[in-house]
Amino acid sequence: MDLSLRINRNTGLKGLTFWGQWALAQGFVVSLLFVLAEQETGKVEFYYRMCATLAVLASVPAYTFSGVYRKRDNYLTGLGRLFVGWSMTMAALAFIAIICKADGLFSGQVIMGWAVYGFLGQALLYAPLHAFSKYYQRSRKSEHRTLIVGTGDLALGLAKKLSHLENLPLVGLVSNGALPDLEPGAPRVVGAQEALLDLIKAHDIRRLYITLPLSEAAKIEAMYVDLLDANVDVVWVPDLNSLTLLNHSVKVVDGLPAIYLNESPLTSRPTAALSKSLMEKSVALLAIILLSPVLLIIALAVKFNSPGPVFFKQDRHGWNGKVIQVWKFRSMRVHDDKEVKQASRNDSRITAVGRFIRRTSLDELPQLFNVLQGHMALVGPRPHAVAHNNYYSGKILAYMARHRIKPGITGLAQINGCRGETDTLDKMQKRVEIDLKYINNWSLWLDLKILVKTPFTLLSKDIY
Fold it and tell me: What does the pLDDT average to over 318-325?
């Protein structure tokens, strides 16, 4: 698995670029609103002061989401992002005003002038600060000339990532053995490790990345000792490519560096996890209310189609391996379920109604109640029967790691075609790989994209 290098871009120049320009822009728009309001009414009413406060608060997520003040953008692209961010801020304020029935308090002339002149003023402020940011970046560029020790996949991957950072110009690679034959377009090899100190002086290097494997720990230590007097920043990027990493990160624990190889997103980002839970429970409750007639019709159809209960409840593994009961509309005739067997094409156990609701995935709707209970999520790895997990856990690497996040009604694997029976190890292996990819890249935005794409996959030919 590729090691994803996480470089903290929220400090230094990016912090100056975003927060500095944001603070100036918000100071301007707040002052503008107060001036316009005073010209209109002779004083700044409380509701205008509240509007200014909400505008400042709303601009943080709006500008962050829109990518305003990115230092790599040219001026026109930056203006476009600024327009989107400002429009989102104004839309949020309008929504709040309508919900609170406060829109009648504000002067339309004041708000319209604020919206137009607010953007134009921010655009004028953006021009000199954007130019200063570019100048400062170019002036610092020579101060971070970089070498990478190593020529393996990790070194090449790191070089590709550094190429996106304009203030970290890469001079080349340093070979720790025989000079390799690299593909065209790869960074050049400037020399061998034995001549590292000379290379640092010759190329005026200010930062050195070491990407040697863990098996060469003694060589890394000796190299570091030699570099203490070289006036160069030394950064070690551990080669963990042989490990299956899960939501990995690098943190500091009371002054000690710590590499988190395996961590649940629900524990590493509790605030985001809370947002995910609130969003999904709200959507699940709304869906139950809106779909209640459909739920009632399906329940009656299941009841009258064959004898037995309306709902089928099965033990499956949930978050952190805890056993939960997953609800579905019963789609099969009541039968001996001592040996859990996956449904297959033309399965004789499936009823006529069951075949339709399985084909359209309507049998999964009761899992909305599982979401309200907190046992499941709308989006996550699909839960498998306990017996299936016991079977596959010894045959597929990191199979149970997919339970480090709540199971979902839909997931990244499902919208990528991994649905239906997993009658071979290869099919289950592919599903697990996509589930782990979801965990490693989880975000609310990814969840929203999966939810939007899910309806277009419900009629897959692999569902039966």
Answer: 87
Task: For helices 46-66 and 75-99, give the axis angle rounded to 10 degrees.
Answer: 140
Instruction: Please check whether residue 174 is in contact with residue 148, taking contact to mean a CB–CB distance below 8 angstroms.
Output: yes
At what angle are helices 21-41 and 46-66 packed, to 10 degrees? 150
49-61 per-position pLDDT tens digit: 999 999 999 888 8
pTM of the model: 0.55
Q: How confident is the model at residue 1 (pLDDT cuts 50, 70, 90)?
A: very low
pLDDT above 50 (res 9): no
Domains of the chain in sequence order: 12-140 (no CATH), 145-243 (3.40.50.720), 270-457 (no CATH)
Q: Dihedral sign for Cα 360, 363, 365, 370, please.
A: negative
What tokens appear for 347 in the block? 């399965």
Contact 55, 80 (CB under 8 A): no
Lookup result for tokens 């909305």: 368
Radius of gyration of the chain, Cα coordinates, nearest whole angstrom: 29
Q: How confident is the model at residue 73 (pLDDT cuts 50, 70, 90)?
A: confident
